[in-house]
Each structure stands twice: as C-alpha cells, then as structure tokens.
Amino acid sequence: MIKLQNITKSFGRLQVLKGIDLVVEKGEVVAILGPSGSGKTTLLRCINYLEKPSDGEITIDDFTVNCKRPSKKDIHTLRGKTAMVFQQYNLFRHKTALENVMEGLVVVQKVEKEEARRRSIELLEKVGLGNKLNAYPSQLSGGQQQRVGIARALALNPEVILFDEPTSALDPELVGEVLAVIRNIAKEGITMIIVTHEMGFAHDVANHVVFMDEGIIVEEGKPNDIFVSPKEERTKQFLKRITPEGVYSI
Amino acid sequence: MKLDPSFIWTALVELLSAVPTTLNVTMVSILFGTLIGTIVALIRIYRVPVLNPIASAYVTVIRGTPMLTHLLLIYYGLPMLVNGLSDSFGWSFRAASIPMIGFAYLSFSITSGAYLSEVVRSGMLAVNRGQIEAAYAVGMTTPQALRRIVLPQAFAVSLPNLTNALIGALHGSTLVFSLTVVDINAKAQIVASTNWKFFDAYLAAAILYWGLTVLIEQLSGLLEKRINVYNRGGVA
Lengths: 250, 236
Fold this sequence. Notes:
The complex is a heterodimer. By secondary structure, chain A is α/β, with parallel strands linked by helices. Chain A has helices at residues 40-47, 72-80, 97-108, 113-126, 142-155, 172-186, 199-205, 223-227, 233-242, and strands at 2-11, 14-24, 29-33, 55-60, 63-66, 82-85, 160-164, 191-195, 208-213, 216-221. A 6-stranded mixed beta sheet of chain A has the order 6-7-8-3-9-10, sandwiched between helices. A 4-stranded antiparallel beta sheet of chain A has the order 2-1-4-5, covered by helices on one side. Chain B is mostly helical. Chain B has a domain at 22-182: Orthogonal Bundle (MetI-like fold), CATH 1.10.3720.10. The A-B interface holds A 48-50, 76, 79-80, 82-84, 86, 88, 90-95, 103-104, 107-109, 136-138, 152, 156 and B 128, 130-131, 133-141, 144, 148-149, 152-153, 156, 227, 229-232. Chain A: Its main location: membrane. Chain A: It is a peripheral membrane protein.
C-alpha cells in the first residue's frame, strides 16, 4: 500500500502541490489525469524523491518518510521500493538494452551477474525485444526504447512502478505497442501509478482514476465515476475539452 | 649552412632515449591532472561548501599564470616548505632528496588539473539530467550514479578536449629542461652541442614530437570510433 499524506511542493513562491492525500492499494492501477501545470508529474516525481516535497509524509508498505527532514538513507530506501518509467525514456545511453535492464539488479540489488542476465533477457523477451538485447538506445525506435525502460523498471521488482507520461514523446504509430505492454503487466497485479493523457487507455486499464488541477486532487474514483459521471464541474470541463464526442458513451 | 640529413637521422635515434622521460612527465601530469580536475569539477558542480570557493580560486589562479612560472615557483618554493616542516617536526628528510623530475610531476599535475577541471565539468554538464535521474530511479546512490552513468558519458563527450589536453601536456613537458631534466628537447640541445648543428637536432626533435602527437591522435580516433557505436550525436 502507498499512502501520501498532505504532500506539498513549492518552487520558489509558486506552490505546485497544495496538500495531496492519496491512498493506493496493493495491485491497483492508478491513472492521474489533469491539465498541464496541474502538478501531476511533480506529484509522481515526489513519490521517489526525484522532486523533493516541501512537506508531508510518504508511506510505502510499512516504510514512512517524513518529508520535512528525510535522511539520505530514507530517500535511498524509498527509491529502492519504487521504479520509474520516464517520458523521455532516459535509458542509459552508453549501455545496451540488456545492460540497461541488468544495471539496477547488479549494481543496486547485488544480484549475481548470470542470474541478472537471465532475468533481464526474460523481461526483454516479455516486452517483445528478445532480438534487440545488444542494441544501444540510439539504435532503437522510441517505442522500443520505452519498452526497454519498462523492462528496466520491472526488473527491480518494485512495490510500485511510476509511469510519467510514458507515451507522450512517441510518434502516434508507436503509442500502441507501449500501451499494450503496460496493459499486459497491469494484469499481473503490479501496483502502478500512471500520469497520462491517453484517456481511452486510462479508462480501460486503470481501476482508480485521479483528476488533478492546480495542485490539488479535484476528484477521484473508479474509471466510470470519473469518465461517465464526474461530479465536479472542473472535471467535466476537462473531459469535454480533451475527449472527442461519443468516445465515452458506454 | 647546409642541412645534414644523416645527422638528423643520428640525432633522431639518440633522441629516442629521452622519449620515456617525456612520456613519463606527460602521462603523470595528465593522470593526476584528470584526478584533480574531476575532484575540482565535482566540487564546483555540487557547490560543496568551503571547498567550492577554494576550487574556483585554484582554477583562476592556475589558468591565470604560465606553466613555467608554476614550475619555478614549485622548484624554489617547495624546498622552503619541506625543509621548514622538517625542521619544525625534527624529521631528517631534506628537499635535496626530491628528484628533479618530482618537481615536474607535481607542478604539471597542478597545471593540467586546472585546465582539465573545466574539460570534465563541461563534459558532465553535457550529460542529460535524465541520465542521473534514471540512475537514482533504479536506486543508485550519487557516487554509484556518477561512477557508472555520468562520468563514462562525460568522458566520451570530453574525448576531443582530453586529447587536446594530452597533446598540450606533451608539448608543455619541454619546460622540464629548465630543471635540467633531460627530455626530448633537452636531449636535442645536448646532441647538437657536440657539432653545433642545432637546427638539425631541433628538427629531429620536432619530427619526434609530431610523431608522438600523430600516435595520440590515432589512438584517440580509435577510441572515438568505439564510443560512437552508441553516441551518434552531433551534426554529421
């Protein structure tokens, strides 16, 4: 279980997160939606401390970090429980696909090299890249790179995988292959938090949808609660603006 | 005066005995210079309290003064320091037992460290921020992320500049003759002093330096080719 309590974050005088409370149950797939500037990516990045929250509490399983004064060890432990898939993939450029997936296992989790290699190959096959083990990121398409990114996250066997707009940087024709991979791993009961603009995908894959605007959670619930019968005016406006008519007539 | 090709050849062969000295001075100053430079670059990038202003001062002072001046200051200053320390602590060690080449190692390492710190710093700044974030996200500590992810990529980016620095250090090493260390250049003078064919001897030295430089360029080219397997950036 992941529990965020009163997370706030300011960049200078600009308050980006104004007190976020969120509970994510084990195995849940959470989609975070919202207009740009709503703080959704910042929130996601606060969960593994790539962004330092100004205040609040983050609990993953039975490990709690108080964001007022976290120790280096706290942050390290927290990161050990999470994995992230980035918008820009951020694969290690000087390492092959296989080395990218192995890196965390060998360096951080101290898994034996042969074992790490075996598991990494398995994961790359699972995301359909069994034939690209020795390719460098620069030799892969965006969709392929992102699938390596997902394999790299899966390899760590984390409590939760954080997806930061995983398909936003992709050519339209490559979005499908990445969403298909995420769809597949969602079925395996891995806890996932996904910041996305893919409404159809969020509707199908998520079992918990969160709508954010201006640094607060405006509304959250089951996908149908949000997509079909949103209560808040702000949510309705947002959905009307970005979904073509008729798509969500269920 | 006529050029004496056979003497140029003789001189060239004789100069070969001084190549190890030249290469020693060059390699030592680049190796320690890179070490110093990396530490200084890290201090400046992470704005380490107390050390950051010291590092900045080091870079501006050393880059602001000539290499020969560093060598002379070390040559005359270090003995005062060493002997003074020896006296006050009652050690028997005297500065006279430091070999001449030791002054060159120390002085040139300090010189290259300042220049190389900027090479390393610019290399590190050229590595995308996403790379270290990804390293953190898989759970690495900062030292792990720097060692495994950032520095190798920074090195790749910096290779042309590092090659420049290495060639600069090779040519700069000629200054050791002012300490009576016999490098290629000093050897040329010695070889010529027997028959006064200075031009021929220095021409031989020039050919040798050029040869060594070409060697460095070739090695760097090979390395760059290897790196380009993953790093296909730039305009071409």
